[in-house]
Design goal:
Layout: H1 2-9, H2 16-30, E1 52-53, E2 57-58, E3 64-70, E4 76-80, H3 86-95, E5 100-105, E6 109-111, H4 131-140, H5 142-146, E7 147-149, E8 154-157, E9 167-174, E10 182-189, E11 200-202
Parallel strand pairs: 5-9
Antiparallel strand pairs: 1-3, 2-3, 3-4, 4-8, 6-11, 7-8, 9-10
């Protein structure tokens, strides 16, 4: 113990700058890596291959934040790795022939409504009386046919279900889960009607 005490006393005291640098290096080592937001609300088997992809936005670490690919049948596949730059994604969809309004939301929030006039009962219509009525509503609406989750990070858009002048409204919400890192709400807005900007509010559900 005396030898250790003597050795310790020979070590000069650290300067404030050295202590600050050591503290920053420790924090950098403890900081978690950026989590990519890659999963939708419904998990289904992946099986759609992209035929022709447009140039994606590149995130800071070199991973594409999103990409839009068009298949031979005219459908579009949106791949989301990170919820960033909704305006850029809207531009990609517009270039592919789909007028869209895209919002990225923080976890536990939603857009205050109503934001727009729905093209069908999926948005702004009467509430379903039960599971059977809800299932029939979803299966019979063009909103649900226009977008379909195809994997834990991709959404397929079918323009054939979007009438001229309609806007595809997509609200992606971050979700603190490794299995479902984001959730999606998607609807069609009535042709030639405005879509109001999203005002995020706490989600009570």
């Amino acid at each position: 113990m005396d030898a250790l005490k003597s050795m310790w006393e020979t070590i000069p005291a650290a300067t404030p700058a050295e202590l600050a640098g050591a503290r920053q290096r420790l924090l950098d080592g403890m900081r978690p890596r950026r989590r990519f937001v890659t999963a939708p609300r419904l998990l289904v088997a992946a099986g759609v291959a992209a035929v022709a992809a447009v140039t994606p936005l590149i995130a800071g670490n070199g991973t594409p934040a999103y990409a839009v690919a068009e298949s031979a049948d005219g459908t579009l596949t949106v791949t989301l790795n990170e919820l960033r730059d909704p305006d850029g994604l809207e531009a990609k969809l517009r270039a592919a022939g789909v007028k869209a309004d895209v919002t990225f939301l923080a976890a536990g929030t939603r857009c205050a409504g109503p934001r727009f006039a729905g093209a069908d009962a999926m948005y702004g219509g009467p509430a379903a009386a039960g599971p059977d009525e809800l299932r029939a509503l979803v299966e019979g609406s063009r909103s649900s046919k226009a977008t379909k989750v195809t994997s834990i990070r991709t959404v397929r858009i079918s323009p054939e279900y979007i009438k001229p002048g309609e806007t595809l409204v997509m609200e992606f919400r971050d979700n603190p889960s490794t299995q479902r890192p984001w959730q999606l709400g998607s609807w069609l807005a009535r042709a030639n009607t405005p879509v109001q900007p999203c005002t995020p509010i706490p989600d009570a559900n």
